[in-house]
Amino acid sequence: MIRCMRLVPALVRFSTARVMAYRAEMVIWILSASLPLVMLALWNAVAAEGPIAGMGQGEMARYFAATLLVNQLTGVWIVWQLNYEIRTGLLSTQLLRPVHPLWHNAVWMMTALPIRALVMLPILGALLAWRPDLWVRPDPLMLPVFALSVAMAWALAFLVQATFAILSFWLDQSIGLFGVWYSGWALLSGYVAPLALFPDWAQRPLRFSPFRAMLGLPVELLGGFVSPREVGLDLAVQAGWVLGALVLVRVLWRRGLRHYGAYGA
Amino acid sequence: MVGALARVSLLIAMQYRSDFVFNGLTGLLRTAALVGPLLLVFQHRETVSGWTGPEATLVMALFLLLSSMTGALMEPNLGAVVEHIRRGTLDLVLLKPADAQLLVSLSRVEPSRLWDLPAALLLGGWALAQMPAPSPWGVIGAIIAVLSGLAAMYGLWLLAICTSFYFVQVDNLRFLLMSASEAGRWPLSLFSGWLRVVLLVAVPVGVVTTLPAELLRGRGSWEMVATAVAVGTGFLVVSRLAWRRALASYTSASS
User: What's the rounded Cα separation, in Å, for the pair A236 and A250?
Assistant: First the structure.
Protein backbone atom coordinates (compact mmCIF):
# COMPACT_ATOMS: atom_id res chain seq x y z
CA MET A 1 0.00 0.00 0.00
CA ILE A 2 2.70 2.50 1.04
CA ARG A 3 4.74 1.57 -1.98
CA CYS A 4 1.65 2.23 -4.08
CA MET A 5 1.28 5.66 -2.53
CA ARG A 6 4.83 6.60 -3.51
CA LEU A 7 4.04 5.66 -7.07
CA VAL A 8 0.98 7.87 -7.23
CA PRO A 9 2.69 11.09 -8.44
CA ALA A 10 4.37 9.24 -11.28
CA LEU A 11 1.13 7.51 -12.19
CA VAL A 12 -0.74 10.81 -12.20
CA ARG A 13 1.86 12.40 -14.50
CA PHE A 14 1.73 9.42 -16.84
CA SER A 15 -2.06 9.31 -16.86
CA THR A 16 -2.45 13.03 -17.44
CA ALA A 17 -0.25 12.76 -20.51
CA ARG A 18 -2.37 9.84 -21.68
CA VAL A 19 -5.59 11.79 -21.19
CA MET A 20 -4.23 14.85 -22.97
CA ALA A 21 -3.01 12.79 -25.90
CA TYR A 22 -6.57 11.89 -26.78
CA ARG A 23 -8.22 15.21 -25.93
CA ALA A 24 -10.32 15.50 -29.11
CA GLU A 25 -11.72 12.02 -28.59
CA MET A 26 -12.30 12.83 -24.98
CA VAL A 27 -14.43 15.85 -25.88
CA ILE A 28 -16.49 13.81 -28.34
CA TRP A 29 -17.01 11.15 -25.68
CA ILE A 30 -18.11 13.73 -23.16
CA LEU A 31 -20.51 15.41 -25.59
CA SER A 32 -22.02 12.01 -26.38
CA ALA A 33 -23.40 11.95 -22.85
CA SER A 34 -25.96 14.62 -23.63
CA LEU A 35 -28.99 12.48 -22.84
CA PRO A 36 -29.82 14.44 -19.64
CA LEU A 37 -30.43 17.47 -21.88
CA VAL A 38 -32.95 15.51 -23.95
CA MET A 39 -34.64 14.25 -20.82
CA LEU A 40 -34.69 17.80 -19.42
CA ALA A 41 -36.54 18.96 -22.56
CA LEU A 42 -39.09 16.19 -21.99
CA TRP A 43 -39.66 16.77 -18.27
CA ASN A 44 -39.63 20.53 -18.79
CA ALA A 45 -42.58 20.11 -21.17
CA VAL A 46 -44.30 17.79 -18.70
CA ALA A 47 -43.83 20.24 -15.82
CA ALA A 48 -45.05 23.17 -17.94
CA GLU A 49 -48.65 22.59 -16.81
CA GLY A 50 -47.70 22.51 -13.14
CA PRO A 51 -45.27 20.72 -10.84
CA ILE A 52 -45.32 16.92 -10.63
CA ALA A 53 -44.22 15.14 -7.46
CA GLY A 54 -43.27 18.57 -6.15
CA MET A 55 -40.97 19.37 -9.05
CA GLY A 56 -41.66 22.39 -11.25
CA GLN A 57 -39.66 23.58 -14.25
CA GLY A 58 -36.99 25.20 -12.10
CA GLU A 59 -36.47 22.01 -10.06
CA MET A 60 -36.32 19.91 -13.24
CA ALA A 61 -33.64 22.19 -14.68
CA ARG A 62 -31.68 22.00 -11.42
CA TYR A 63 -32.04 18.23 -11.25
CA PHE A 64 -30.79 17.61 -14.78
CA ALA A 65 -28.00 20.19 -14.54
CA ALA A 66 -26.80 18.23 -11.51
CA THR A 67 -27.24 14.95 -13.44
CA LEU A 68 -25.12 16.25 -16.29
CA LEU A 69 -22.30 17.17 -13.89
CA VAL A 70 -22.46 14.10 -11.64
CA ASN A 71 -22.62 11.79 -14.64
CA GLN A 72 -19.33 13.26 -15.86
CA LEU A 73 -17.78 13.10 -12.40
CA THR A 74 -18.61 9.41 -12.11
CA GLY A 75 -17.56 8.49 -15.65
CA VAL A 76 -15.30 5.44 -16.05
CA TRP A 77 -14.61 3.09 -18.95
CA ILE A 78 -12.81 0.27 -17.17
CA VAL A 79 -15.21 -2.37 -18.53
CA TRP A 80 -14.10 -1.76 -22.12
CA GLN A 81 -10.45 -1.21 -21.23
CA LEU A 82 -10.06 -4.31 -19.08
CA ASN A 83 -12.17 -6.47 -21.40
CA TYR A 84 -9.87 -5.43 -24.25
CA GLU A 85 -6.76 -6.17 -22.21
CA ILE A 86 -8.03 -9.60 -21.21
CA ARG A 87 -9.16 -10.59 -24.71
CA THR A 88 -5.98 -9.50 -26.43
CA GLY A 89 -3.66 -10.80 -23.72
CA LEU A 90 -2.35 -7.30 -23.14
CA LEU A 91 -3.10 -7.90 -19.48
CA SER A 92 0.00 -10.08 -19.23
CA THR A 93 2.19 -7.01 -19.77
CA GLN A 94 0.12 -5.01 -17.32
CA LEU A 95 0.58 -7.69 -14.68
CA LEU A 96 4.36 -7.36 -14.94
CA ARG A 97 4.21 -3.74 -13.84
CA PRO A 98 4.81 -2.88 -10.20
CA VAL A 99 1.31 -1.43 -9.81
CA HIS A 100 -1.88 -3.47 -9.71
CA PRO A 101 -3.65 -3.06 -13.08
CA LEU A 102 -6.86 -1.97 -11.39
CA TRP A 103 -5.05 0.79 -9.47
CA HIS A 104 -3.31 1.81 -12.63
CA ASN A 105 -6.60 2.17 -14.48
CA ALA A 106 -8.27 3.87 -11.53
CA VAL A 107 -5.66 6.63 -11.47
CA TRP A 108 -5.87 7.01 -15.24
CA MET A 109 -9.64 7.39 -15.16
CA MET A 110 -9.53 9.76 -12.20
CA THR A 111 -7.16 12.15 -13.97
CA ALA A 112 -9.77 12.54 -16.72
CA LEU A 113 -12.29 13.93 -14.25
CA PRO A 114 -11.14 17.59 -14.24
CA ILE A 115 -11.36 17.74 -18.03
CA ARG A 116 -14.76 16.13 -17.99
CA ALA A 117 -16.02 18.71 -15.51
CA LEU A 118 -14.43 21.58 -17.46
CA VAL A 119 -16.13 20.62 -20.72
CA MET A 120 -19.45 20.68 -18.89
CA LEU A 121 -19.02 24.27 -17.65
CA PRO A 122 -20.23 26.07 -20.82
CA ILE A 123 -23.24 23.77 -21.04
CA LEU A 124 -24.09 24.35 -17.39
CA GLY A 125 -23.64 28.09 -17.96
CA ALA A 126 -26.06 27.98 -20.88
CA LEU A 127 -28.60 26.11 -18.73
CA LEU A 128 -28.26 28.76 -16.03
CA ALA A 129 -28.83 31.53 -18.57
CA TRP A 130 -31.89 29.71 -19.89
CA ARG A 131 -33.46 29.18 -16.50
CA PRO A 132 -31.83 31.33 -13.79
CA ASP A 133 -34.14 29.94 -11.09
CA LEU A 134 -32.35 26.60 -11.19
CA TRP A 135 -29.65 28.15 -9.00
CA VAL A 136 -30.07 27.93 -5.26
CA ARG A 137 -27.33 28.80 -2.84
CA PRO A 138 -25.91 25.46 -1.72
CA ASP A 139 -25.92 24.62 1.96
CA PRO A 140 -22.22 24.81 2.98
CA LEU A 141 -22.63 21.72 5.13
CA MET A 142 -23.96 19.74 2.20
CA LEU A 143 -20.95 20.34 -0.04
CA PRO A 144 -18.57 17.98 1.80
CA VAL A 145 -21.39 15.46 2.01
CA PHE A 146 -21.90 15.78 -1.73
CA ALA A 147 -18.16 15.39 -2.36
CA LEU A 148 -18.11 12.22 -0.26
CA SER A 149 -21.15 10.86 -2.06
CA VAL A 150 -19.71 11.59 -5.52
CA ALA A 151 -16.47 9.88 -4.55
CA MET A 152 -18.38 6.79 -3.43
CA ALA A 153 -20.54 6.86 -6.57
CA TRP A 154 -17.39 6.99 -8.69
CA ALA A 155 -15.87 4.09 -6.77
CA LEU A 156 -19.04 2.04 -7.13
CA ALA A 157 -19.24 2.73 -10.87
CA PHE A 158 -15.60 1.69 -11.22
CA LEU A 159 -16.04 -1.49 -9.20
CA VAL A 160 -19.26 -2.52 -10.98
CA GLN A 161 -17.66 -2.05 -14.39
CA ALA A 162 -14.57 -3.90 -13.17
CA THR A 163 -16.79 -6.80 -12.06
CA PHE A 164 -18.30 -7.12 -15.53
CA ALA A 165 -14.85 -6.82 -17.11
CA ILE A 166 -13.44 -9.54 -14.85
CA LEU A 167 -16.24 -11.82 -16.04
CA SER A 168 -14.48 -11.80 -19.43
CA PHE A 169 -11.94 -14.20 -17.91
CA TRP A 170 -14.72 -16.78 -18.28
CA LEU A 171 -17.32 -15.31 -20.65
CA ASP A 172 -17.23 -13.89 -24.18
CA GLN A 173 -20.30 -11.80 -23.62
CA SER A 174 -19.41 -9.73 -20.59
CA ILE A 175 -19.84 -6.51 -22.56
CA GLY A 176 -23.34 -7.59 -23.60
CA LEU A 177 -24.18 -8.37 -19.98
CA PHE A 178 -22.90 -4.96 -19.02
CA GLY A 179 -25.25 -3.50 -21.66
CA VAL A 180 -28.19 -5.06 -19.83
CA TRP A 181 -26.98 -3.68 -16.51
CA TYR A 182 -26.52 -0.27 -18.17
CA SER A 183 -30.12 -0.15 -19.45
CA GLY A 184 -31.37 -0.99 -15.96
CA TRP A 185 -29.08 1.65 -14.53
CA ALA A 186 -30.26 4.29 -17.02
CA LEU A 187 -33.88 3.73 -16.05
CA LEU A 188 -33.52 3.24 -12.30
CA SER A 189 -30.61 5.46 -11.24
CA GLY A 190 -32.35 8.76 -11.85
CA TYR A 191 -30.54 9.31 -15.17
CA VAL A 192 -33.67 9.60 -17.34
CA ALA A 193 -36.17 10.64 -14.69
CA PRO A 194 -35.94 11.83 -11.08
CA LEU A 195 -36.68 8.88 -8.83
CA ALA A 196 -39.38 10.93 -7.07
CA LEU A 197 -41.55 10.54 -10.18
CA PHE A 198 -41.75 6.76 -9.84
CA PRO A 199 -44.90 5.23 -8.33
CA ASP A 200 -45.11 4.98 -4.55
CA TRP A 201 -44.57 1.23 -4.32
CA ALA A 202 -41.22 1.62 -6.13
CA GLN A 203 -39.88 4.35 -3.85
CA ARG A 204 -38.41 2.16 -1.10
CA PRO A 205 -36.60 -0.39 -3.30
CA LEU A 206 -35.30 2.45 -5.50
CA ARG A 207 -33.99 4.38 -2.50
CA PHE A 208 -31.80 1.48 -1.37
CA SER A 209 -30.80 0.20 -4.81
CA PRO A 210 -27.20 0.26 -6.05
CA PHE A 211 -28.38 2.30 -9.05
CA ARG A 212 -29.29 5.29 -6.88
CA ALA A 213 -25.97 4.93 -5.06
CA MET A 214 -24.22 5.28 -8.43
CA LEU A 215 -25.92 8.48 -9.61
CA GLY A 216 -29.21 9.51 -8.06
CA LEU A 217 -27.99 10.12 -4.53
CA PRO A 218 -25.20 12.61 -5.33
CA VAL A 219 -27.47 14.33 -7.86
CA GLU A 220 -30.20 14.75 -5.26
CA LEU A 221 -27.66 15.95 -2.71
CA LEU A 222 -26.27 18.58 -5.10
CA GLY A 223 -29.75 19.71 -6.09
CA GLY A 224 -30.86 19.90 -2.45
CA PHE A 225 -33.60 17.28 -2.82
CA VAL A 226 -32.58 15.14 0.16
CA SER A 227 -33.83 16.09 3.60
CA PRO A 228 -30.99 16.28 6.15
CA ARG A 229 -32.62 13.61 8.29
CA GLU A 230 -32.26 11.02 5.54
CA VAL A 231 -28.68 11.81 4.56
CA GLY A 232 -27.07 9.57 7.19
CA LEU A 233 -28.92 6.42 6.19
CA ASP A 234 -28.51 7.11 2.46
CA LEU A 235 -24.75 7.54 2.81
CA ALA A 236 -24.49 4.40 4.92
CA VAL A 237 -26.33 2.39 2.27
CA GLN A 238 -24.05 3.83 -0.41
CA ALA A 239 -20.96 2.91 1.61
CA GLY A 240 -22.38 -0.58 2.04
CA TRP A 241 -22.68 -1.03 -1.72
CA VAL A 242 -19.13 0.21 -2.26
CA LEU A 243 -17.75 -2.23 0.30
CA GLY A 244 -19.74 -5.11 -1.12
CA ALA A 245 -18.53 -4.37 -4.64
CA LEU A 246 -14.95 -4.07 -3.39
CA VAL A 247 -15.09 -7.54 -1.82
CA LEU A 248 -16.69 -8.98 -4.96
CA VAL A 249 -14.01 -7.49 -7.21
CA ARG A 250 -11.20 -8.77 -4.98
CA VAL A 251 -12.57 -12.32 -4.93
CA LEU A 252 -13.39 -12.43 -8.64
CA TRP A 253 -10.05 -10.91 -9.60
CA ARG A 254 -8.05 -13.58 -7.72
CA ARG A 255 -10.09 -16.41 -9.21
CA GLY A 256 -10.09 -14.88 -12.67
CA LEU A 257 -6.36 -14.44 -12.64
CA ARG A 258 -5.86 -18.10 -11.75
CA HIS A 259 -8.15 -19.03 -14.64
CA TYR A 260 -6.25 -16.66 -16.96
CA GLY A 261 -2.95 -18.22 -15.95
CA ALA A 262 -4.29 -21.58 -17.07
CA TYR A 263 -4.08 -20.39 -20.68
CA GLY A 264 -0.34 -20.20 -20.22
CA ALA A 265 -0.48 -16.49 -20.89
CA MET B 1 -26.41 -7.83 -56.31
CA VAL B 2 -27.86 -6.37 -53.12
CA GLY B 3 -29.34 -9.78 -52.33
CA ALA B 4 -26.00 -11.52 -52.73
CA LEU B 5 -24.28 -8.99 -50.49
CA ALA B 6 -26.97 -9.30 -47.85
CA ARG B 7 -26.73 -13.10 -47.91
CA VAL B 8 -22.97 -13.14 -47.46
CA SER B 9 -23.00 -10.72 -44.56
CA LEU B 10 -25.87 -12.59 -42.92
CA LEU B 11 -23.89 -15.82 -43.20
CA ILE B 12 -20.88 -14.20 -41.58
CA ALA B 13 -22.97 -12.94 -38.71
CA MET B 14 -24.88 -16.19 -38.24
CA GLN B 15 -21.70 -18.09 -37.51
CA TYR B 16 -22.10 -17.00 -33.93
CA ARG B 17 -25.52 -18.41 -33.15
CA SER B 18 -25.43 -18.32 -29.40
CA ASP B 19 -24.34 -14.69 -29.58
CA PHE B 20 -27.37 -14.05 -31.77
CA VAL B 21 -29.79 -15.44 -29.20
CA PHE B 22 -27.98 -13.76 -26.32
CA ASN B 23 -28.10 -10.42 -28.12
CA GLY B 24 -31.80 -10.94 -28.73
CA LEU B 25 -32.47 -11.33 -25.02
CA THR B 26 -30.38 -8.31 -24.09
CA GLY B 27 -32.08 -6.34 -26.87
CA LEU B 28 -35.51 -7.10 -25.40
CA LEU B 29 -34.39 -5.90 -21.97
CA ARG B 30 -32.96 -2.73 -23.48
CA THR B 31 -36.26 -2.03 -25.23
CA ALA B 32 -38.14 -2.50 -21.99
CA ALA B 33 -35.89 0.09 -20.37
CA LEU B 34 -36.59 2.49 -23.24
CA VAL B 35 -40.32 2.29 -22.66
CA GLY B 36 -39.91 3.03 -18.94
CA PRO B 37 -39.79 6.83 -19.22
CA LEU B 38 -42.92 6.78 -21.42
CA LEU B 39 -44.85 4.96 -18.70
CA LEU B 40 -43.61 7.47 -16.12
CA VAL B 41 -44.61 10.50 -18.18
CA PHE B 42 -48.12 9.33 -18.90
CA GLN B 43 -48.68 8.18 -15.37
CA HIS B 44 -48.57 11.86 -14.44
CA ARG B 45 -50.15 13.46 -17.52
CA GLU B 46 -52.80 12.75 -20.17
CA THR B 47 -50.94 14.66 -22.90
CA VAL B 48 -47.52 16.26 -23.24
CA SER B 49 -47.09 19.12 -25.74
CA GLY B 50 -50.25 17.91 -27.46
CA TRP B 51 -49.20 14.24 -27.71
CA THR B 52 -51.18 11.46 -26.07
CA GLY B 53 -49.61 8.30 -24.68
CA PRO B 54 -50.26 6.12 -27.74
CA GLU B 55 -49.07 8.86 -30.09
CA ALA B 56 -45.80 9.24 -28.19
CA THR B 57 -45.47 5.43 -28.17
CA LEU B 58 -45.78 5.50 -31.96
CA VAL B 59 -42.85 7.93 -32.13
CA MET B 60 -40.87 5.58 -29.86
CA ALA B 61 -41.73 2.60 -32.11
CA LEU B 62 -40.53 4.47 -35.19
CA PHE B 63 -37.33 5.33 -33.33
CA LEU B 64 -36.79 1.65 -32.55
CA LEU B 65 -37.26 0.86 -36.25
CA LEU B 66 -34.64 3.47 -37.11
CA SER B 67 -32.19 2.35 -34.44
CA SER B 68 -32.48 -1.27 -35.49
CA MET B 69 -31.77 -0.26 -39.10
CA THR B 70 -28.82 1.91 -38.06
CA GLY B 71 -27.49 -0.76 -35.75
CA ALA B 72 -27.92 -3.60 -38.23
CA LEU B 73 -26.87 -1.93 -41.48
CA MET B 74 -25.19 1.43 -41.07
CA GLU B 75 -23.08 1.31 -37.93
CA PRO B 76 -21.17 -1.96 -38.63
CA ASN B 77 -20.26 -0.73 -42.10
CA LEU B 78 -18.83 2.51 -40.81
CA GLY B 79 -16.59 0.43 -38.56
CA ALA B 80 -15.67 -1.81 -41.49
CA VAL B 81 -14.60 1.07 -43.73
CA VAL B 82 -12.47 2.60 -41.01
CA GLU B 83 -10.77 -0.77 -40.62
CA HIS B 84 -10.31 -1.08 -44.42
CA ILE B 85 -8.65 2.30 -44.62
CA ARG B 86 -6.37 1.67 -41.68
CA ARG B 87 -5.20 -1.65 -43.09
CA GLY B 88 -5.14 -0.59 -46.73
CA THR B 89 -7.57 -3.35 -47.74
CA LEU B 90 -9.94 -0.79 -49.22
CA ASP B 91 -7.96 -1.23 -52.45
CA LEU B 92 -9.37 -4.74 -52.74
CA VAL B 93 -12.91 -3.41 -52.43
CA LEU B 94 -12.28 -0.73 -55.04
CA LEU B 95 -10.95 -3.33 -57.48
CA LYS B 96 -14.19 -5.28 -57.42
CA PRO B 97 -16.35 -4.81 -60.52
CA ALA B 98 -19.28 -3.21 -58.70
CA ASP B 99 -20.10 0.20 -57.36
CA ALA B 100 -17.84 0.70 -54.36
CA GLN B 101 -20.43 2.71 -52.45
CA LEU B 102 -22.81 -0.22 -52.62
CA LEU B 103 -20.15 -2.68 -51.54
CA VAL B 104 -19.04 -0.49 -48.68
CA SER B 105 -22.58 0.20 -47.47
CA LEU B 106 -23.68 -3.41 -47.39
CA SER B 107 -20.53 -5.34 -46.60
CA ARG B 108 -21.55 -6.09 -43.03
CA VAL B 109 -24.83 -6.76 -41.30
CA GLU B 110 -25.34 -7.09 -37.58
CA PRO B 111 -28.47 -9.28 -37.47
CA SER B 112 -28.75 -9.24 -33.70
CA ARG B 113 -29.89 -5.63 -33.92
CA LEU B 114 -32.82 -6.78 -36.04
CA TRP B 115 -34.23 -8.03 -32.73
CA ASP B 116 -35.47 -4.49 -32.17
CA LEU B 117 -37.85 -4.89 -35.12
CA PRO B 118 -40.45 -7.15 -33.45
CA ALA B 119 -40.44 -4.78 -30.47
CA ALA B 120 -40.96 -1.82 -32.82
CA LEU B 121 -43.84 -3.59 -34.60
CA LEU B 122 -45.46 -4.58 -31.32
CA LEU B 123 -45.26 -1.09 -29.84
CA GLY B 124 -46.35 0.56 -33.09
CA GLY B 125 -49.25 -1.87 -33.55
CA TRP B 126 -50.45 -1.29 -30.01
CA ALA B 127 -50.20 2.49 -30.45
CA LEU B 128 -52.10 2.49 -33.76
CA ALA B 129 -54.84 0.32 -32.28
CA GLN B 130 -55.40 2.93 -29.55
CA MET B 131 -55.60 5.81 -32.00
CA PRO B 132 -58.42 6.65 -34.45
CA ALA B 133 -57.78 4.94 -37.79
CA PRO B 134 -55.51 7.08 -40.01
CA SER B 135 -56.65 8.21 -43.43
CA PRO B 136 -55.24 6.40 -46.49
CA TRP B 137 -53.40 9.58 -47.48
CA GLY B 138 -51.93 9.74 -44.02
CA VAL B 139 -50.64 6.17 -44.32
CA ILE B 140 -49.14 6.79 -47.76
CA GLY B 141 -47.54 10.02 -46.57
CA ALA B 142 -46.14 8.29 -43.47
CA ILE B 143 -44.59 5.50 -45.54
CA ILE B 144 -42.99 8.05 -47.87
CA ALA B 145 -41.69 9.99 -44.87
CA VAL B 146 -40.22 6.91 -43.18
CA LEU B 147 -38.45 5.81 -46.35
CA SER B 148 -37.12 9.32 -47.02
CA GLY B 149 -35.97 9.60 -43.44
CA LEU B 150 -34.16 6.25 -43.58
CA ALA B 151 -32.51 7.36 -46.84
CA ALA B 152 -31.46 10.61 -45.15
CA MET B 153 -29.97 8.76 -42.18
CA TYR B 154 -28.11 6.48 -44.57
CA GLY B 155 -26.74 9.60 -46.26
CA LEU B 156 -25.61 10.94 -42.90
CA TRP B 157 -23.77 7.72 -42.07
CA LEU B 158 -22.17 7.68 -45.52
CA LEU B 159 -20.96 11.22 -44.86
CA ALA B 160 -19.46 9.95 -41.61
CA ILE B 161 -17.76 7.17 -43.58
CA CYS B 162 -16.36 9.79 -45.97
CA THR B 163 -14.72 11.70 -43.13
CA SER B 164 -12.75 8.57 -42.32
CA PHE B 165 -10.75 9.18 -45.50
CA TYR B 166 -9.41 12.37 -43.97
CA PHE B 167 -9.32 11.59 -40.24
CA VAL B 168 -8.38 8.18 -39.01
CA GLN B 169 -10.28 8.19 -35.72
CA VAL B 170 -13.94 8.44 -36.67
CA ASP B 171 -14.99 5.59 -34.42
CA ASN B 172 -15.99 8.19 -31.91
CA LEU B 173 -18.10 10.00 -34.47
CA ARG B 174 -20.32 6.97 -34.31
CA PHE B 175 -21.13 7.59 -30.67
CA LEU B 176 -21.79 11.25 -31.33
CA LEU B 177 -24.19 10.40 -34.17
CA MET B 178 -25.97 7.82 -32.06
CA SER B 179 -26.38 10.07 -29.07
CA ALA B 180 -27.52 12.95 -31.28
CA SER B 181 -30.25 10.75 -32.72
CA GLU B 182 -31.40 9.76 -29.20
CA ALA B 183 -33.44 12.95 -29.11
CA GLY B 184 -35.58 11.57 -31.97
CA ARG B 185 -37.17 9.16 -29.53
CA TRP B 186 -39.52 11.92 -28.42
CA PRO B 187 -41.95 14.08 -30.39
CA LEU B 188 -40.10 17.08 -31.80
CA SER B 189 -42.61 19.54 -30.36
CA LEU B 190 -40.92 19.02 -26.97
CA PHE B 191 -37.85 20.85 -28.20
CA SER B 192 -37.24 24.53 -28.81
CA GLY B 193 -37.32 25.96 -32.34
CA TRP B 194 -33.70 25.68 -33.45
CA LEU B 195 -33.25 22.19 -32.06
CA ARG B 196 -36.35 21.07 -33.96
CA VAL B 197 -34.79 22.32 -37.21
CA VAL B 198 -31.52 20.54 -36.39
CA LEU B 199 -33.37 17.27 -35.79
CA LEU B 200 -35.17 17.57 -39.12
CA VAL B 201 -32.41 18.84 -41.40
CA ALA B 202 -28.97 18.19 -39.85
CA VAL B 203 -29.48 14.93 -37.92
CA PRO B 204 -32.70 13.99 -39.68
CA VAL B 205 -34.14 11.57 -37.08
CA GLY B 206 -37.30 13.65 -36.87
CA VAL B 207 -38.10 12.72 -40.48
CA VAL B 208 -38.25 9.05 -39.51
CA THR B 209 -40.00 9.47 -36.16
CA THR B 210 -42.07 12.63 -35.67
CA LEU B 211 -43.19 13.43 -39.23
CA PRO B 212 -44.77 10.00 -39.93
CA ALA B 213 -46.41 10.03 -36.50
CA GLU B 214 -47.92 13.45 -37.26
CA LEU B 215 -49.23 12.12 -40.57
CA LEU B 216 -50.68 9.01 -38.92
CA ARG B 217 -52.49 10.95 -36.20
CA GLY B 218 -54.12 13.17 -38.80
CA ARG B 219 -52.14 16.35 -38.08
CA GLY B 220 -50.03 16.03 -41.21
CA SER B 221 -49.83 18.24 -44.24
CA TRP B 222 -48.39 17.83 -47.71
CA GLU B 223 -45.60 20.22 -46.69
CA MET B 224 -44.39 17.58 -44.24
CA VAL B 225 -44.19 14.94 -46.95
CA ALA B 226 -42.43 17.42 -49.22
CA THR B 227 -39.92 18.26 -46.47
CA ALA B 228 -39.26 14.58 -45.89
CA VAL B 229 -38.65 13.88 -49.56
CA ALA B 230 -36.46 16.98 -49.91
CA VAL B 231 -34.31 16.05 -46.91
CA GLY B 232 -34.02 12.44 -48.08
CA THR B 233 -32.97 13.33 -51.62
CA GLY B 234 -30.70 16.09 -50.37
CA PHE B 235 -28.79 13.73 -48.10
CA LEU B 236 -28.52 11.04 -50.79
CA VAL B 237 -27.15 13.48 -53.39
CA VAL B 238 -24.75 15.26 -51.05
CA SER B 239 -23.40 12.01 -49.58
CA ARG B 240 -22.92 10.55 -53.09
CA LEU B 241 -20.93 13.64 -54.13
CA ALA B 242 -18.91 13.52 -50.92
CA TRP B 243 -18.17 9.81 -51.49
CA ARG B 244 -16.88 10.55 -55.02
CA ARG B 245 -14.67 13.33 -53.71
CA ALA B 246 -13.36 11.20 -50.89
CA LEU B 247 -12.51 8.35 -53.27
CA ALA B 248 -10.77 10.76 -55.65
CA SER B 249 -8.55 11.99 -52.85
CA TYR B 250 -7.86 8.50 -51.53
CA THR B 251 -4.25 7.52 -51.68
CA SER B 252 -4.14 3.95 -50.56
CA ALA B 253 -1.92 2.77 -47.77
CA SER B 254 0.10 0.71 -50.20
CA SER B 255 0.87 3.40 -52.76
Answer: 21
